[in-house]
Amino acid sequence: MGVTGPDDRLLTVKQLADYLSLNERTVLRLVTEGALPGVKVGNQWRFRKAMIDTWLDDQMLGVTPRLVNEPSAEPATRQMLELASCFSLDQMVPSMKATTKNEAIEELASVAGDLGLVRDKTWFVGALIERENIMPSATGNGIAFLHTVRRTPAQVTRPFMILGRSVQGVDFDALDGNPTHLFFVLGLKLVELHLPWLAKLATMFSSRDAVDQVLSAPDPQAIYNVIAESERRLSGK
How far is CA 183 from the centre of its chain? Predict the structure, then answer.
C-alpha cells in the first residue's frame, strides 16, 4: 500500500472556491480547461484537497503556470539559486538502471543519501513517494520535477539538485502519457521556498530540443555543460 496523502477530503466547487479565494466561475473554468486537478462525479465536480494543496505547492514553486496568487508577495529583489550552488557532477546519474517509478525514486534518493544531502534516506524516499501518490511530478515532454510535499529543513543539509537520466525512459505517469527521461530531484529548505528554482528549470527545459540535448550528451561533464549553458542563456549572461 502506498503512502497516503496528508488530507484526502473531497471538496465541492463552492468549498474549493472559498479555499482558493476565487469565484466559482473561475474554478469551473480552470478545471474544465484541465489546469486544475478535479474529477467529475455525475454532473458535479469534486476536488481532493491533498491534490489541490500539491497543485498550489507547484504553483508557488513555479512548476505549473501561475494561475493564482501566492498568499503573500515576495520582494522582487530575491535572488535565484545558481546552478553551481546546488548541483555538481557527483549529483548526477547519467545512466539510470531503474525501469519503474519506485525504482527510479529509490535510485535517485540513494544518491542524496550517500552524499549526505539528506539526513535520512528512508525519509526522503517516503516523502518523494508521498508526493507522487498525491499527484505525479512528471509534467510531460520527458521530464519530471521531484520534491517533497512539505519542506523539512531539519532533513535537508543544504539545498540540492540530483539529476537522473534514463535514455530508455521510465513510465512515470506523465501528463502526456510518454516515458520520462530526465528526473530533477530537488531538496528544498523552508528558507528556499520563495526561490523560483523549479520555475527556472521548467523554463530551461520547456522545449523538447533542450531535453534531447541532455539525452545526447556523451558524459556527465557534457550534461553539466548543456545545463549550465541553458542557465546562462536564461539569465542573459
Answer: 9
- The whole model's pTM is what? 0.74
Kindly give, in sequence order, each residue whose CB lies less than 8 Å from that of residue 33, ignoring residues fewer than 6 positions away: none
Rounded to an integer, what distance in angstroms lies between the CA atom of residue 64 and that of residue 93? Answer: 25
Go through the domains of the chain in sequence order and give each one's CATH number.
10-61 (1.10.10), 83-235 (3.40.930.10)
Are 181 and 144 in contact, with CB atoms under 8 Å apart? Answer: no
What value, to the nearest 5°, has the Cα angle with vertex 53 and ends 91 and 125?
35
Cβ 160 vs Cβ 122: under 8 Å: no
Residues whose CB falls within 8 Å of the CB of residue 79, separated by 6 or more in sequence, listed in order: 195
The model's pLDDT over 121-131, given as tens digits with 9 standing for 90+, comes to 999 999 999 88
Helix and strand element counts for the chain (H, E) = 9, 8
In contact, 185 and 128? CB cutoff 8 Å: yes
Give the angle 20-35-196 at the CA atoms, nearest 5°: 75
Q: Give me the residue label for grid cell 535537508.
A: 156
| H or E segment and range at residue 207 | none
pLDDT per position as a tens digit, 39-71: 888 889 998 888 888 788 777 666 665 565 544
CA angle 79, 108, 147 (to 5 degrees): 45
